[in-house]
Amino acid sequence: MLSLMSDLPPDVIGIIANGKVTADDYIETLFPAFEAYAEKNRKMKYLLLLDTSVSNFTLEAWLNDGVLGYQYLMRWSKVAIVTDQEGVIGFTYVFGKIMPGEFKGFSRAALQQAKEWVSAP
Question: What is the pTM for the complete model shown?
């Protein structure tokens, strides 16, 4: 399931992923939220709190994740991925080297630090 975070500045979009994540979560929650956010923000700051295993994402959800990333490819400013999955943090580091914008992984214990980092100019 995907849900919006409510405790971030208006120039940051935050999503919490928990339990099973499906294509419908992207269609019903993520895509509309990003469309509304993109209308107000040229450069995009995104925080994903990954409170579920990446194995809980369906194939269709992963495909929609790729669509979302590509759709806003040149608009990413900062992306913070918060998780206790070391492999995801490592992937975020490597992925950030080839993507526009800054990408950074944080442990779950460093959630506040991630919020501060992604919110900074």
Answer: 0.90
